[in-house]
Amino acid sequence: MEKRIETIYRTALGGSTSQVRRNRAVVPPLDFDRHSPFLLLMEDWFDASGGFETHPHRGFQTVTLVLDGELEHRDHTGAHGVLARGDVQWMTAGRGALHSEMSHGGGVTHTLQLWLNLPARDKMSAPSYRDQRLADAPVFRLEGGAVRVYAGTVGDVAHEHGSVWPLVLLDVSLQAGHGYRVPVPASYRGFFYLLAGAAHLGADREMARAGDVAWFEPAQGDGSDTLTIEATAALRGLVYASPPIDEPVAAYGPFVMNTMREVQQAFADYHAGRLVESVT
Residue 168: is its pLDDT beyond 60? Predict the structure, then answer.
């Protein structure tokens, strides 16, 4: 079946802070039940004068796509690396992670970072990182466009996800006047973020333009649905899709748990130096 677009909203650019030159809340940290398992998606532009110095996380995963520039990361295990344009980092914070994300080189780093929830059974799992290079993400070619498959299956092209909780992540490019029906698991909730161009989306051909976020809802069954994307101007957009997690969400700062008591424990563990003990 064709997915219907349930909601489209326009994002807005934010101003500069000590960390970023500008940013955009693509998915704001609101309506956790409605957006489950997506907690937050931030688009950030930053340089060597800012960035995200060492900070903690617990209870969820981050999926970071570098849109431009280079991102340098370090973590509490001693891991260190640089991600270039088109690379993705999959990080499971699990029980606890301490890491930094800074601009590398002299230019501006432009990233998209998704916070993807974890179910209660996995919130205290061991942390892990996986860097996925642009060259390792296969591309499905079609008339008038292409789909880079960071995670998921498109036609005869497939790539496994790098997170504990399943995620489809597709980078779609289409020329004006061309379209494609992107396959997505029927039971997944998701959204399409239009980075550039314009399109008619979904079964009802809803209009979307650069900066818009279009959401679709899960359906019953284990089969596959499709998300129709018809480019009215040359476009690039990202499809994120994942099965909902039907559990309470308690979030504050860098910690996402099921209860506020668990969040308070995370803060206590962090301040006592216990957040990453026994998992380094």
Answer: yes
